[in-house]
């Protein structure tokens, strides 16, 4: 039982939180747009732009808050292209999503290469905000309740989303836009507008998630640094069946897998890192095999809405 | 009730009027100078065949489409209905054939759709108003039930309640009874009568004549997108049912289409040659209705009708015979050749044909042109394909021949088959399955969902197939159809054939007994 020391557990939970927050944000964002009927394959690209913008602004201005704000704006900018092409013009969501991801990969790698390839600047670790009492709990305390503010905001967003889905007109409108857009249109709500809002929010969430990876997680920007987080976010949203709490649970689970590498190194277990890095993706497949059959997606997911079309 | 409620309010003038309205779609004029008035306190029945332009008319009234010419008057003044929202604001509520409720939301959430986004829906208040409105028209609804858990009939009632709560003065029911059980349809009819008694204008769109006459105060007939005639309330009330029906049929089709049905009644034919299709002890696995002990033979030139209530294994049997579903045990012989292990293609090449009831799902590929669909089961065969390369000239020749022979009404042989009406898709299927060396043909619900004229022509094709010496298995849930066409009738119940009778004068009684579980 030498493996489960307090140090090991703390680093595991901490890793799960640090790696899980970007997944959580991405998953929540994807859940929002999927609910409204837009399959957002461009999530990875939105995260990457968010990561780049977040790092750049945080580095230039010295303010992590500004960094997060611009990371979110960067994600929204990509989302705006998606909304224009897929929601307004009705182009294929999958093709555009792939194009956006590839485009974001290219442009961030290029800009990074021009600006930072000689200096490799780093950001200082972000200040944490310990929550009184809770941060004193062993293992959980330092790992969860002594974190930067953005972590608390991300977790708070889960409950905001629960409230929005359950108790507001917007929640009903999103659900209707994804399940039966014609009914929403007949009720006098603009389907295109509802979906656009959903996609823009997805961009905001994904951009924040990306900025978290570069500002909090790594402290640097590296090309392709989101490596698959956006795609895991899509899987999370699909498995969560519209429930934000499930996204949180899934994000922490996948986050734990992602953080295994460091945690096991702390514990002194010698497994090739390549094997451990496969874990989250093996986990995705395992979860899909076990639970994927029961995943229910909105009826009109992936199809653009044209009034009166038969 | 009809007279007392209709006359005083009708004096106000029509709620909605369409004046010379024209709507064109690529290749078709869906509505051609249509003029119709909708009066308060009346059920106005809009009758027409498939493709007569009824749905387009509804689309324009409900704000989904805009007329190209002509105008729509609301309370006498011309108004441009730009959106569904505006139609609702003007008091025009529409209940579509397919439910417009979001299945994953509760009824009350469906009703509160459209409020300001940041606000909480007033669920308690709306639920109370829903119950009140529902009870005022004599129905009960549970506001917190999930819309998707309700039957279609219940969903329509809910949508009527919603239209009333929005202050609709004109309620359009678009093919509302098409997918309802007879009991639900009857309830809807009674509900319509209660609604007009309150002074509403109800537009009831249907292609069922008996419903039109039972619930309508006024009838307008559309044909090929044009006004084909109308019956005023006083005419409709004074005429007796059969005379009114004959008149409506004349307006719909230009001829007395039902005359043919009576003259086409079947005289007993002497068939009894060698069996072409012989099925013995057939058993098929299935989750809901497994088949066992299915045995029958069909002789050349004979029509064997397979009657039974839908869902008693007819579909499973048809698929097993066609080769689309594995046979567990038993034998299937076509002219003495055992085919129970053969695939679909091999059975077809031996002359076994299957006209499916799922015309667009498994019968045709909707996006393929008519010409390719006519050869769907011969793709790769000579002379239409040579060494895997398509031969457009041969394919087009084949298509032109069958389009002419089977009277398929299509703009061109290159038109995607899904753009055709149900009746014309059925003609494409019939052309494909009845052509070439067909020996035995299985028809599954061949006239399901077709309009009267296409029903007549499909039945004629079935009769002709038998007269040409083919063995015909006619699977149908329409007993009249089977009594009209079949020589012998087998009755299916719970995956078994419970009896076979000759189609004589006493057949109807015997089939009824077999269906209800008695032995003959």
UniProtKB/TrEMBL annotation, chain A:
This is ABC transporter permease. GO terms for molecular function: transmembrane transporter activity. Pfam families: BPD_transp_2. The chain crosses the membrane at residues 6-26, 38-60, 66-87, 94-114, 149-165, 186-206, 212-238, 245-269, 275-292. GO terms for cellular component: plasma membrane. It comes from Metarhizobium album. It is found in: Cell membrane. Keywords: Cell membrane, Membrane, Transmembrane, Transmembrane helix. It is a multi-pass membrane protein.
TrEMBL record, chain B:
Pfam families: ABC_tran. SMART domains: AAA. The lineage of its organism: Bacteria, Pseudomonadati, Pseudomonadota, Alphaproteobacteria, Hyphomicrobiales. Belongs to the ABC transporter superfamily. It comes from Metarhizobium album. CDD domains: ABC_Carb_Monos_I (cd03216), ABC_Carb_Monos_II (cd03215). InterPro entries: AAA+_ATPase, ABC_carbohydrate_import_ATPase, ABC_transporter-like_ATP-bd, ABC_transporter-like_CS, P-loop_NTPase. The keyword Nucleotide-binding applies. It comes from the Bacteria. Residues 16-249, 276-519 form the ABC transporter domain. This is ABC transporter ATP-binding protein.
């Amino acid at each position: 039982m030498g493996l489960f020391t307090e140090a090991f557990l703390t680093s595991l939970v901490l890793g799960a939180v640090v790696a899980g927050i970007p997944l959580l944000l991405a998953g929540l964002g994807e859940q929002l747009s999927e609910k409204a009927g837009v399959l957002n394959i461009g999530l990875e690209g939105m995260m990457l732009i968010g990561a780049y913008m977040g790092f750049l602004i945080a580095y230039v201005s010295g303010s992590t808050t500004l960094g997060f704000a611009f990371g979110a704006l960067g994600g929204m900018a990509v989302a705006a292209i998606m909304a224009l092409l897929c929601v307004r013009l009705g182009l294929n969501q999958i093709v555009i999503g792939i194009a956006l991801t590839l485009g974001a990969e290219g442009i961030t790698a290029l800009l990074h290469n021009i600006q930072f390839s000689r200096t490799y600047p780093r950001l200082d670790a972000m200040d944490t905000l310990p929550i009184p009492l809770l941060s004193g709990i062993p293992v959980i305390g330092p790992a969860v309740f002594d974190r930067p503010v953005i972590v608390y905001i991300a977790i708070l967003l889960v409950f905001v989303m629960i409230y929005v889905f359950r108790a507001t007109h917007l929640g009903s409108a999103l659900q209707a836009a994804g399940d039966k857009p014609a009914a929403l249109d007949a009720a006098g709500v603009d389907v295109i507008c509802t979906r656009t809002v959903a996609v823009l929010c997805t961009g905001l969430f994904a951009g924040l998630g990306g900025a978290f990876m570069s500002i909090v997680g790594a402290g640097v920007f590296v090309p392709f640094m989101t490596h698959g987080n956006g795609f895991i976010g899509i899987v999370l949203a699909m498995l969560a069946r519209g429930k934000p709490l499930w996204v949180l649970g899934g994000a922490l689970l996948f986050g734990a897998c992602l953080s295994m590498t460091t945690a096991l190194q702390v514990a002194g277990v010698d497994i090739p890192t390549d094997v451990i890095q496969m874990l989250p993706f093996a986990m995705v497949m395992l979860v899909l095999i076990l639970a994927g059959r029961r995943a229910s997606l909105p009826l009109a997911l992936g199809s653009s809405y044209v009034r009166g079309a038969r | 009730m009809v007279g007392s409620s209709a006359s005083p309010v009708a004096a106000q003038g029509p709620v909605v009027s369409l004046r010379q309205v024209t709507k064109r779609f690529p290749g078709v004029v869906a509505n051609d100078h249509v003029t119709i008035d909708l009066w308060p306190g009346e059920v106005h029945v809009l009758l027409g065949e498939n493709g007569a332009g009824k749905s387009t008319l509804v689309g324009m009234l409900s704000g989904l489409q805009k007329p190209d010419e002509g105008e729509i008057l609301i309370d006498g003044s011309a108004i441009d209905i730009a959106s569904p929202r505006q139609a609702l604001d003007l008091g025009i509520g529409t209940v579509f054939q397919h439910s417009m409720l979001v299945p994953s939301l509760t009824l009350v959430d469906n009703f509160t759709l459209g409020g300001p986004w940041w606000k909480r829906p007033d669920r308690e208040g709306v639920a109370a108003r829903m119950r009140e409105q529902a009870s005022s028209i004599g129905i009960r609804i549970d506001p917190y039930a999930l819309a998707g858990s309700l039957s279609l009939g219940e969903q329509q009632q809910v949508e009527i309640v919603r239209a009333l709560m929005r202050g609709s003065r004109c309620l359009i029911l678009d093919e509302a009874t098409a997918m309802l059980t007879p009991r639900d349809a009857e309830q809807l009819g009674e509900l319509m009568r209660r609604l007009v008694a309150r002074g509403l204008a109800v537009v009831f769109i249907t292609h069922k004549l008996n419903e039109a006459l039972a619930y309508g105060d006024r009838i307008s007939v559309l044909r090929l997108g044009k006004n084909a005639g109308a019956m005023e309330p006083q005419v409709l009330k004074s005429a007796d049912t059969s005379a009114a029906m004959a008149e409506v049929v004349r307006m719909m089709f230009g001829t007395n289409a039902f005359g043919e049905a009576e003259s086409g009644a079947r005289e007993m034919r002497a068939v009894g040659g060698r069996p072409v299709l012989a099925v013995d002890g057939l058993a098929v696995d299935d989750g809901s209705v497994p088949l066992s002990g299915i045995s029958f033979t069909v002789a050349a030139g004979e029509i064997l009708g397979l009657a039974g209530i839908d869902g008693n294994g007819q579909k499973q049997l048809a698929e097993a015979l066609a080769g689309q579903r594995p046979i567990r045990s038993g034998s299937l012989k076509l002219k003495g050749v055992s085919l129970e292990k053969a695939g679909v293609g091999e059975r077809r090449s031996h002359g076994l044909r299957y006209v499916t009831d799922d015309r667009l799902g498994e019968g045709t590929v909707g996006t393929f042109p008519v010409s390719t669909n006519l050869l769907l089961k011969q793709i790769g065969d000579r002379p239409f394909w040579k060494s895997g390369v398509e031969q457009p000239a041969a394919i087009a020749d084949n298509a032109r021949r069958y389009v002419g022979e089977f009277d398929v009404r299509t703009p061109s042989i290159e038109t995607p088959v899904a753009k055709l009406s149900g009746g014309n898709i059925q003609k494409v299927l019939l052309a494909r399955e009845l052509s070439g060396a067909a020996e035995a043909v299985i028809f599954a619900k061949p006239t399901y969902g077709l309009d009267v004229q296409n029903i007549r022509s499909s039945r004629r094709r079935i009769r002709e197939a038998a007269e040409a010496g083919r063995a015909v298995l006619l699977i149908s849930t329409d007993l009249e159809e089977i009594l009209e066409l079949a020589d012998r009738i087998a009755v299916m119940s719970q995956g078994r054939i419970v009896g076979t009778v000759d189609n004589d004068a006493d057949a109807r009684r015997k089939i009824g007994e077999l269906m209800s579980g008695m032995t003959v």
